[in-house]
Amino acid sequence: MVVLEGARLIEGALERGARMRALYVAAGRPAATGTAPLEARAAAQGAEVFEVATGALERVATTVTPQPVLALFDGPDAGPPDPWPPPTSPVPGPLLVLAGVSDPGNLGTLVRSAEAAGVTTVVRGAGTADPSNPKSLRASAGAVFGVTIVDAPDTPGTLDALRRAGWTTIGTVPSGGRAVEAVALTGAVALVVGSEAHGLGPAVTDRLDERVSIPMEAGESLNAAVAGSIVLFEAARQRRAGASGGNRRSSAGGDP
User: pTM to 2 decimals?
Assistant: First the structure.
């Protein structure tokens, strides 16, 4: 199980169908804290509700300024991959493959952006942070419960399997790739985001069909979560443009 702190994070998990096991609220909490609706939802799920002594939550919470409510939930599922669907299957959005995204805050932010951009599956490769980490949970704002998280520690093997199934693998690199807006990111595309410190590494880049970079006016590179989010929302923009009959960008490997 995992601990979620604060009403908004708890509500976000509940909205995505996560299972609450217990709710803890601070004694003497003012009505303005809004814990009453959470207590009602906890009771509806059969979760236990506990009132704890003043100061107890502050001692166990991980945030600097803890809120007067926290809850125990079943953790987000992270199972092994099923056979990858062929590209002829309905694909609502790309896959997001995380290769060595070790910072839990970056992981949570990327999962949050992935969900918002229409991605339903996030592949957690080797060296990637745990989605159950408190920082991951907070940064995801509950999104770790809204997408399917697949544990696939053999990232090169995963990319090989995806390519055999007909998926196009596209990785983000700080420089030297094609401009992200010039590459088709629709259909059966696996977007690969790597370590902020070490990049993707040769074993991964050798298995990419395309490398993309984000044109910048200044600076050397972007935070991994920011760069990945930009690519995810460019993919979402292209899907919307395609659905409305707009012009499609050139396919991977073509001319910009």
Answer: 0.85
